[in-house]
Each structure stands twice: as C-alpha cells, then as structure tokens.
Amino acid sequence: MQQFLDRPLARRRSVGVAVGDVIVGGDAPVVVQSMTNTDTADIDATVAQVAALHRAGSEIVRITVDRDEAAAAVPRIRDRLARLGCHVPLVGDFHYIGHKLLADHPDCAEALAKYRINPGNVGFKEKKDRQFGAIVETAIRYDKPVRIGVNWGSLDQELLTRLMDQNQAQGSPMTAIEVMREAIVQSALISATMAEEIGLPRDKIILSAKVSQVQDLIAVYVELAKRSDHALHLGLTEAGMGTKGVVASSAAMGILLQQGIGDTIRISLTPEPGGDRTREVQVAQELLQTMGFRQFVPIVAACPGCGRTTSTVFQELAATIQDDLRRNMPVWREKYPGVEELKVAVMGCIVNGPGESKHADIGISLPGTGETPSAPVFIDGQKAATLRGPQIADDFQKMVAEYIEQRFGAGGRQAAE
Which residues does the annotation say bind [4Fe-4S] cluster (predicted)? Predict the structure, then answer.
C-alpha cells in the first residue's frame, strides 16, 4: 500500500505522436483537450468557441465534421483562428461518411491536424474495411495522425457477436461484460494493426476506448496498456452533468493516471443549458494539477468554513482571487514565467489560518466570529502586514498582484538569477 501511495507511477512508455505542434505520448506531459458543441458550418460560433476553449487551456480541440457544409468550413475556421493568433490543433471528428468528406474536401483534409475514426461506424459489412482504409490513406497522403476511437455505444457488432459465440462455445468462462470489454480492446488493436499494414506509421496512431462506467473504463484501459505501446487518449464518455460528471471522470481517470496510463485526456461533461463549455477544460486541468502531473494555474487554498467563520468574506475573497488568477493566466503565462507555481491561501479564522498562510507564498487569515477584526498577511512564510477595516479584501488583492510582479516579473527573475 505504501508503495502505491508514494507514487504517481512512472508513465507507461508510449510512442509519441505529433498533433500539429503538440506532442501526445512519448516523454511529453499529459495533454488536455476538448471538443466544441457548435455546428461546425457556423463559422463564427465555432471560431468563438475554439478560441475560448484554447484560452481556457485546451491544447487540442476537436470539431464535428458531419456533412459537406461542415467540411467546407474547416479551412476557413483554421484561417480565422490563425488571424486571431490562435494556433491550436484542430481534430476532425468523422462518422459514417468521413472517407467521402475527406475525399471531396481536400482543403479540409489538409487543414485538420488529426482525424478521429470510429471503427464501429466507419462503414458496415463489406464497406467497412474499404472506407476505413480510404481515411487512413488520406491521412498518409496529408501526413496526419489518426485517433482510432472505439466507443461502446457504437461498438462493432460483428466483432462482439463473434466473441460472444466463441465464449459460449468455450462454456462461457467470461461474463458478458468481460466479453464486451475484450471486444472494445480488440476493436482498437485490430484497427491499429490494419492502419499500420496500410502504411500509417505507429507514431501517427492514437487509441481510445470510450465507455461510460468507471470500472469498465479502468478495466479496458489497463488491458489496452498491457497489449499496446500506442499513445492513449483517456475519456469517460457520456460522463453526465455537474458534480456527477466531474466525480465519475476524475475517479476513473485518476486511477489510470496514477498507474501511468494515459497521454491525453478529455473530460466529457454535459453542460448546463447555456452553460460554459470551458468548464470541461478547467476540470481536466484541475485533475492533472491536483495529482501533481502538471501545473496550470496558481493554487488557492481555502478552508471549508465552520461555525467560527460565519462571515462570507473569506469565501468571496477566495472565489475572487481564484477567478482573477484563472482569468489572467493567458496573459500572465507570457508576462510572468513560472506564475503557475504560485500558492495562495485565503483562510477564514485563526485556527489553521496562520499556519496555512505561512505554507503558501502569500496568504491571509481573515477574522472569524468573535475574533479581533484584523487579518494578518504572510509572505514567503513571514508576517508581512496586518490588514484592518472594510477594505481588507481589496487590499489583499493588491498585495497578491504586487507579489506576482515582484517575484515573477522581469525584476524578480533577474534578482533570482
């Protein structure tokens, strides 16, 4: 048990795949990606959402390419994004007629950084292999990687039926769910082998095996990782809305990441009506950051509150500081290298407040119920000031901004050197 707790484990060694300027697998850090929910033919809406996802931290963005109008829009979307200074790799999500869309729209084939193929619906019966092969040949022609994305909602029924029959003939040593899991794994591996036989190099192939139940996802990816060195895309499909989707995705992918499995992740949250699509990017970043794999934004430690902290001041201040840091990160990453390592503490009373504040780079302990209306501020472990009066929150925000400038600005970097 202690050995498990002392990790995360070393990453499973996989073949690195270049998706535009982003490397997935190999020695690269786990990549965050997302997907638009706009009609791709609506260029304005799609450009706006891709740009928003990228600003939020999505390093790859997938878009639906489901018909001629969508395919025709892809190069225009790519060009519009470039003019905005947004050079995020775009992945085309193809189902049913992907082979035809790529053939009829060569500009789309060239503009995309990667193609996603679902072997369960790329074609049926005698057309399946031919249409799969056509997409792979297009990828080879344009030097594009491919994600072979199996999904249990559209699993190859011929393969599943064959494995079920074989299992029954052997006296049913496996349960139905175990057969289903094996069918998912085999579908990915068989398709990858076929792609390589056609001529697609291994460093152009990423595999995924999407299911919607936590235990199924863990079992499928553990097996897939044992039997392949392809880069792996993790994601719990149809994870759901709100906390359910966040918890389910984090539980499943957290266990896999802890075992060193996974090269890129997507959190598939169902947004609330009119909700912010970038929420899934934030959750993906927070998962990787809380597990210690990557650092995206400064950490804000805040106590949960109790009967000692009846004032909402510390809650509002913690939320304001956290929102301010996240909102400014796209600019601060360029202006203040290393700022994502910042640790801020906003505590609601004197029980743990001073201690937590000393552990942070900059922290404040606000007065709780019945305490003296003063708030000590600690910087780099030392008490730096005591704030009083109705402007405590505003004064602390200014101190955070000044600390960032002093430590991570040009002057602070030169002093450190």
Answer: 303, 306, 349, 356
